[in-house]
Structure formats: structure tokens, C-alpha cells
Write the C-alpha cells for this entry.
Amino acid sequence: MGAMTLNRVALFAAALVAAGCGGLTATPSTPQAAAHPSIRFDSTGSWMAPSAAKRDLLYVSDTGGSVDVFSYPQLRQVGLLQGFKSPAGLCSDPRNGDFYVVDTNSLDVFKYKHGATKPVKTLSMFGYFPFGCAVDPASGDVAVANYSAQPSGPGSLSIFRAGAFFPTTYTDPDFNAYFFCSYDDHGNIFVDGADSNSYHTEFAELPNGSSSFKAIALDKTIGFPGGVQWDGTYMAVQDTESRVLFRFKITGSRGKSAGAVRFKSDRSTLLHQFWISGHAIVMPYGTFSRLVRDVGSWPYPAGGSLTKSNSLAHATELVGVTLSAARQGP
């Protein structure tokens, strides 16, 4: 198990580096863009349908250098963001619809307004390769899980307090690589990753106001960690190796399983993120092993069969996903 998971991480890192070598990507010809003659492309080739900002939007990152934008829950493409080196995890602020793109090889996290094609702020990671992110819905703080240090070495968890340009960075001696993170309703941060020797899964909590991680012992084996998200009651943790999502009730330093969610049609074992929205869960998936070029939604927490899907033939490898809600009212 250790050799297989280690190879998976190495291959993913190689894919990010390869994606970063290409610089800006070419603007693809899309039916959605052709259907809207009022669409204008910016200098990076990014575009957005005129009505997109008034809709709930699903953002999906592609290591090839772009972020596809879909109307939600219809999963129809309404935009495309370009100019990245190797985008990975995504996250959003439920208070205002702002969302963040983790661009691993640029060592930056870019903040966008809902429906915009240009970033309004850049969060620099100062020597770390960022991978996943999460926004505290109460404070607006942004947590970033850093895969590793540059050029090599253990990663970290960095927190940008609301409005800050410089982060506070935390490390755990048990972790080597950090993947994804999530806040719960009390401002506690949960993060998954792997150790440096056998690449066993690590899972820990950084309690609100603390500077030290607390290891969480899960009662289900996570063969290789994927996405992490608080669903309002349970902490959902993905096992990429078995393609199963476990829900855990966290009490103290233990996580007790409250059920497993399985997804028909998903055959890939590549690292990717999911996003829970009420009674639905959306995520990139692959119909073949080691291929992630589709995005779909399933019932949550029932799982089972797809309710909607969209295939992205132009994609290199889809990784991150986040839902950004349109502002209500005038």
C-alpha cells in the first residue's frame, strides 16, 4: 500500500510540474462562448457569460491551467478562467460568494469575486506549494493546506486572518504532506495528509485559538486521503484509494464513523476534491482508472447513481471544486 500511494503522489506532483511548464493556455473554442456573442475574452483568454454573476456557480480546476465554470445545479458551462500554472484545490466564502483558486506551482492563492474573470487579491505562500484551502464562514479567515515546502521538505497549514496579506503558518511533526482542509461551525480546522515514511494517512484538528495540532484517530482506514469537508453535522473524509467517502462524528481525539457514501460511475483513483451542498455532493470523477475529465452530482448522503454530469473533453486532469452562491437581493 505504501509504494502504491507514494507513486500516486509522485505522479500527481509530476503532472503539476508539467502543467506549469506551459504557461498560459490557449483559449478553447467552446459552444457556450459561441452562443453568447456579447462575451469578451480578457488578456488570459478567460470569459464569462453575461448572466453568470446572477447564478450559483460551480468552479472546477484543471491541472492543465484553467478553471471551468458551470451554472449550478444545471452543470452547463458558463465561463472559463485561464492563466494559471497548475490549479488544484478551490474554496469559497458562503457570506459573499468570493472564491479562491490554489495555484500550486505559482505558490499563490488567487481570490475572485463571484462571476468575475480577474482576481482581486493574491495570497502568496512564501516558499510552500499550496494544495487545498477552506474559508471560515464566521470570520472570513482563509486556511491553506501546503503540500510541501519549496524546493522540498514538509508542508504546513497557513492561515490568512480576514484581510491579512501575510499568513500564520502551523506545522505538525506527524505530517509530511498536507492535502485538504475544512472549518467546522466553531472555527476549528481539520486537515488530512500523509507522513514521510510509509505515507500512512494523517488526520488532525487545529482547534480554534490553538497553535498546536491535535491528532484525530479515525475508526475507518483511509487508504489514501482525499477531500475533507464539514457537512454541518459530520466531517466528511474521502478515501481516494477505495473511492469511498466516510462521515465521522468527531469527539475529542476520535472520529467515529456515521456511514459511508459510494458513487456509481466513478472509477478513478486520482486525488480530487468534492463539495457538499445541502442534499447533493458534486465532484470531478473518472469513468476509467487514472482519468478525471468529468464532473457530476450525486444525492448526499445516499450516494449511488449520478443525478447530473458533464464531460470535459479538453481537460487534462480535474482536481478541485467549489460552489459559489449568487448574492440575493438588490
